Amino acid sequence: MAEGLRERKKRETRERISDIATGLFLARGFDNVTVAEVARAADVSVNTVFNYFSTKEDLFADRYDLVVDLPQQVLRERGPGEGVVRAFRRDYLGAIETRDWRYGLNAGNDAFSRVINDSPALTARLRDVHLQREQGLARALAGELGADPGDLVPRVAAAQILAVTRILSERAQAMTLAGEPWERIGPLLTAQAHQAFDLLENGLGDL
Questions:
Q1: Per its record, what are the GO molecular function terms (predicted)?
Q2: Distance (Å, rounded) from C-alpha 22 to C-alpha 31?
Q3: 4, 88, 155, 158: which has the fewest Cβ within 10 Å?
Q4: Same domain assignment for residues 89 and 189
Q5: Alpha helical stretches, state H, the chain
Q6: Domain that holds residue 94
């Protein structure tokens, strides 16, 4: 269905407010910018900002719903006969090659990382995003497995898979913030990704 004029204008207004807010947060820090300042810069009222964004954190994390759904998307789009761990391994290795924003590997993500690390509110929001992602993937896995409500397998699997992708991305971000070039980060991250997903596939019994 084609986007109507009203829907397009609402989308454009939301995107403009978010873009302006993100620019202010990157320049001055999340905690140093008020919603009122965002509203003035976007030439809208504070009420208008909150009509589009429930909280100040949403102004920075405007892709919240999309990010939460991404693990479930990987699950849905795996190939015929492809296991869950294999699907996430393939997806993460592909993300390294393309420097995909979905895992925080894109150029310029170090600036976003600094803003998050400097703000307790955004750090807390990021923890909530990780939890929502894990819970969503666990529900999707439970549905595919036909698991009983008390079955721990979907929850444990979701937690372990997303812990691996999170730890790898945190390692990449730490190296980026330390000034390492991507030419060094990429190959090292690829080797570490293989090592981490091997542990997932083969277990820790021999550790």
A1: DNA-binding transcription factor activity; transcription cis-regulatory region binding
A2: 12
A3: 4
A4: yes
A5: 5-28, 35-42, 46-52, 56-60, 64-76, 84-98, 109-117, 120-145, 153-177, 182-202
A6: 64-202
Scanning the structure block, which residue is given the tokens 């939890």?
A: 131
From first to last of the 207 residues of the chain, give the pLDDT tens digit: 566 788 888 889 998 999 999 999 999 999 999 999 999 999 999 999 999 998 999 888 777 778 889 999 999 999 899 999 999 999 999 999 999 988 989 988 888 889 998 999 999 988 999 999 999 999 999 999 898 888 999 999 999 999 999 999 999 999 999 999 999 999 999 999 999 999 999 987 777
For residues 137 and 161, the answer to whether their CB atoms sit within 8 Å is yes
Claim to verify: residue 145 and residue 196 sit in the same structural domain: yes
Q: Does residue 55 lie in a domain region?
A: yes
User: Do 183 and 88 fall into the same domain?
Assistant: yes
Q: How many domains does the chain have?
A: 2
